[in-house]
Amino acid sequence: MTCGFSVSQGAGCDCGRSGRAAPEAAKMGSEGIGKNSTLICVPLMADSVDQMLVDMNKAKSRGADLVEVRLDSLKRFNPSQDVETLVKRCRLPTLFTYRPNWEGGLYDGDENSRLDVLRLAMELGADYIDVELQVIHEFNSFIMQGKKPAKCKLIVSSHNYQNTPSVEDLGKLVARIQAAGADIVKIATTALDIADVARVFQITVHSQVPIIAMVMGERGLMSRILCPKFGGYLTFGSLESGTVSAPGQPTIEDLVNLYNFRQIGPDTKVFGIIGKPVSHSKAPMLYNEAFKQVGFNGVYLHLLVDDVANFLQTYSSTDFAGFSCTIPHKEAALKCCDEVDPIAKSIGAVNCIIRNSSDGKLFACNTDYVGAITAIEDALRGSHHVNGSTVSPLAGKLFVVIGAGGAGKALAYGAKEKGARVVIANCTYDRAKELADTVGGDALSLADLNSFHPENGMILANTTSIRMQPKVDETPVSKEALRSYSLVFDAVYIPQNY
């Protein structure tokens, strides 16, 4: 099987989705299910049966449609007794997985014993069981001796922890899984770049059988959130942050409440913040809540991007409608757009990209300087009680910008426009000098900044990655040097980049 699907051609098409999610799947599970039929499954990774029973109830209360019982996480396990207990006492449909260590799980015992436990779960009333493609023929020989219950759906899975293969190879893999007798196909790959996710979307949208398809890791996050858009059967959401069954898994709370997962469908427009790092950004909280309040059919995501040009070229569909742009892509993104606002051209960086819904062309602008300079002015006016003045409180102030990247350019431009005396400090002096010459200011090396205090009452604006993950406790200058400044502004919190 090969797929010629292009994200830019098919992101908004229906492509037979209704045939992939079994009708009964949309009906079972939590009462909170919305317009899409994609299920949310909570993996249970507890080390005791008692804790799993507690977690089952938590999963139901948080809106799960089913739970995945990870038998390989149990430290003490009596199959004949414990499987029956877990099936009978769960108030949600159950998916039983007994993952071996050779497929990323915790089980390292006898294979026949493992497969026999999965057969037992099926016979005792499990709604789904997950069996790895590598051993599906052995498992089929087990169940041929009995009769597979009609209620139980067989998920045949394949996990790739190294990379995401080509569309052609993924298509062949799906065909192998389907030929093995799977009721539901499951593939999980690893994202080396966010563009890898597009290949899994292509496979998902063309699948003729129910499919669970995801890309692991932070770069693959959107595969887990957007699966309803492309027709995925289910996604996984952990009970708590940090207790994941696979890399990059969001929590069920984030799926339901942050990303409005239940409302995502084929026509949902995709927005997000492009950056590296990007997980610190609060922009999804702001925009997704706004979308919900006004009833707009859109979702806003964290997008960990290494190469902004490749990202924009890969996700060229008009369904990928707009992006905020943060460190370190503000300058590179400008070169990727068809039209750039004159002010953004003057600054040399953009932080907002909008795709034209009719022709797909990209328009870019820069709102960093407006949000940041306004916030700084408001803080200064508040401290000096001069509200209502038409003169900017920045006029005549010595304004020190740390960093000569996109955000640094925006703040330097904005401060100069308001009449401030601008100084650029950067780890590379030549870059600081280049920006300083452009805006009509002075330059410093970052090493000289600690001893730079020509006057008191200066303004300091940090536009570097310091204060972002994982450098949240670091400061760009010493505490002693900060005494010369009346206000310190951290560009991590520029409004556009929440």
Distinct helical segment count = 18
Strand content: 15-25%
- Helix percent band: 25-40%
Strand arrangement in the largest pleated sheet: 7-6-5-4-3-2-1-8
Tally of structural domains: 3
CATH architecture of the largest domain: Alpha-Beta Barrel
**Arithmetic mean pLDDT:** 88
Rg, rounded, reads 27 Å
* CATH homologous superfamily placement of the largest domain: Aldolase class I
C-alpha geometry: elongated
Concise account of the structure shown:
The chain has 498 residues and is an alpha/beta fold.
List the helices and strands and how they pair.
Blueprint: H1 7-10, H2 23-27, E1 39-44, H3 49-61, E2 66-70, H4 79-89, E3 94-97, H5 111-123, E4 128-132, H6 136-143, E5 153-159, H7 167-179, E6 184-190, H8 196-206, E7 211-216, H9 221-225, H10 227-230, E8 234-236, H11 252-258, E9 269-275, H12 283-294, E10 298-304, H13 308-314, E11 320-325, H14 330-334, E12 339-340, H15 342-347, E13 352-355, E14 362-365, H16 368-384, E15 398-402, H17 406-417, E16 421-426, H18 429-439, E17 442-445, E18 458-462, E19 485-490
Parallel strand pairs: 1-2, 1-8, 2-3, 3-4, 4-5, 5-6, 6-7, 9-10, 9-11, 12-14, 15-16, 15-18, 16-17, 18-19
Antiparallel strand pairs: 11-13, 13-14
Helix pairs in contact: 7-8, 16-17
Domain Shikimate dehydrogenase substrate binding N-terminal: 273-353
Protein name: Dehydroquinate dehydratase, putative
Domain Quinate/shikimate 5-dehydrogenase/glutamyl-tRNA reductase: 392-465
